Amino acid sequence: MTMDEEGLFDVEPSAVRTPGRAGGPGSGSLSDAEHASAPLAVRMRPRTLDELRGQDHLLADGSPLRRLVQADRPMSVVLWGPPGTGKTTIAAVLSHSTGRDFVELSAVSAGVKEVRAVIDAARRALTRGGRETVLFVDEVHRFSKAQQDALLPGVENRWVSLVAATTENPHFAIISPLLSRSLLLTLQPLGDEHVAAVLTEAMADQRGLAGAFSMEPAALKHLVRLAGGDGRRALTYLEAAADAAQARGRTVIDVDVAALAVDRAAVRYDRAGDQHYDVTSALIKSVRGSDVDAALHYLARMVEAGEDPRFLARRLVILASEDIGLADPTALPTAVSAADAVAFIGWPEGRLVLAQAVIALALAPKSNAVITAIDAALADVRAGRAGPVPPHLRDAHYSGASDIGHGQGYRYAHDDPRGVVAQQYAPDDVAGRRYYHPTRRGAEAAYADRAERLRQVLDDSEP
């Protein structure tokens, strides 16, 4: 019975089966990309682990990745890292080096039917004593829970060795049962020296530009900076720069040619993953730290990446109370007004409103007395320090309330010319405890003085 007769690929062509050592690296399919017109980034894809740049922590002798490739051991791995760091390259190396069949699925186009077909075919091959199967799933975070569930039997029973690539945090993007059965390998953004090495090799390698061009050091530095740690992007920029030089009849790539080919830096940001949380954290901490320029930088990164302006506005509203509070009582109205304005005018003009709010909040005096006050009060309540409400504060508006002592002895603050009277308000369990500890920064200094005067009056009521 042939593979087709068994229904191995009575599925969409998003699944590509490649014999172990016959396949080659590529973009859409790892088996058919090494042709002359393929993109430079594809032609220069490393063929062995030793050619992989910037991931030294994964390449040590005896590392799981080495064992997977060299020892041909069945193992399922999740490759997590930013774009252009080598995830697909590692899959390509597996397609060259492993003695097993290699199947590629794209999470963009493959469905549950395709996944199950590959798993069933791999199981039947093992049952007949055939070769094991490596299943490469690119952008696995795009798989739904049902699609990821379909991978579980094959991984759990080792009918396939899964190699899943993702740019999203797998702890959020991949179901726990699948993640717990796989080895997680984290790839890092390429350092500048690694990107420079990738570009230099592509200039000379016969698969690349084959020495047809030279590049000035300043141009190399420019491309490295624009690449932002993404090797594939760096090679794409180099190819564009070489095309621009050729169009001008030049063989030297200088800064002018590079700038002509590439006029904008890459923004590394993913709205649902680590970059979202990391850049958000950096924005908030920069505003808290009163570094207005750093705060504007992180705001610009989020704006440029298409972050939801409502999310940004909400974060600034929270920050206004958490980190500024009464040190500048106008901070919260400023943040709320910014949120309303952004909802009203939308994008891209909303960036002006958010920038104004970020500048105002960054330059405002800071105090965390509000959050420490409420958290301290909550801690007492959660610890059981609550106690009954003092009788004189209890509701006395219903019939019979006075008969049980409700409201008796209550002193009406407005009857005193100062607007405050000596009287116990807190339950006995927390009487005398201080939650609000104002700073002497900005307007909160006045609040600190007033709180002290009021407490002196109120304390006269305490035993």
Structural summary, described in words:
The protein is of the alpha/beta class and 463 residues long. It folds into four domains: 16-186, Rossmann fold; 192-261, Orthogonal Bundle (Helicase, Ruva Protein, domain 3), CATH 1.10.8; 274-363, Zinc Finger, Delta Prime, domain 3, CATH 1.20.272.10; 386-459, DNA polymerase III clamp loader subunits, C-terminal domain (post-AAA+ oligomerization domain-like), CATH 1.10.3710.10. It is 45% helix and 7% strand. It has helices at residues 40-43, 64-70, 87-97, 112-127, 145-156, 170-173, 176-180, 192-204, 217-227, 231-247, 255-261, 274-288, 292-304, 309-324, 331-345, 350-363, 369-382, 444-459, and strands spanning 16-18, 77-80, 101-106, 133-138, 160-166, 183-186, 214-215, 252-253. A six-stranded mixed sheet has the order 1-3-4-5-2-6, sandwiched between helices. The protein has a two-stranded parallel sheet with strand order 7-8. Helix 9 (217-227) packs across helix 10 (231-247) and helix 12 (274-288) packs antiparallel against helix 13.
Shape: elongated
Largest sheet: 6 strands, mixed
Mean pLDDT: 80
Straight-line N-to-C gap = 94 Å
Determine the fraction of residues in helical runs and give it as a percent range.
Answer: 40-55%
Tally of separate domains: 4
What descriptors fit this protein?
six-stranded mixed β-sheet, Zinc Finger, Delta Prime, domain 3, alpha/beta, disordered N terminus, 463 residues, elongated, 7% strand, Rossmann fold, 18 helices, two-stranded parallel sheet
Short description:
With 463 residues, this protein is of the alpha/beta class. The chain has four domains: 16-186, Rossmann fold (3-Layer(aba) Sandwich), CATH 3.40.50.300; 192-261, Helicase, Ruva Protein, domain 3; 274-363, Zinc Finger, Delta Prime, domain 3; 386-459, post-AAA+ oligomerization domain-like (Orthogonal Bundle), CATH 1.10.3710.10. It is built from 18 helices and eight strands.
